[in-house]
Amino acid sequence: MKKFFVNIFATTGISMILLAIVALLFQAKCIYIQTVFQVFGVNIFVQSGLFFINKIEIKYAIVEMLLSIILITAILLVFGSIFHWFTSTPLWTLIIMGLVIYVVSAILNLFFMKQEAQEINTLLKKRN
Amino acid sequence: MKIKTEQDYACNEMEITVKYSKMNDQVRHMIDFLQSFDMKIKCDSENEERMVNVLDIYYIECVDKKTFVYLEKTVYHTSFRLYQLKDKLQKYGFVQISKSCILNINALESIRPLLNSRMEAALKNGEKVYINRNYLIEVKKALRQSESERYGVI
Question: Which residue of A57, A110, A127 is in closest CB contact with B113?
Answer without folding.
Answer: A110
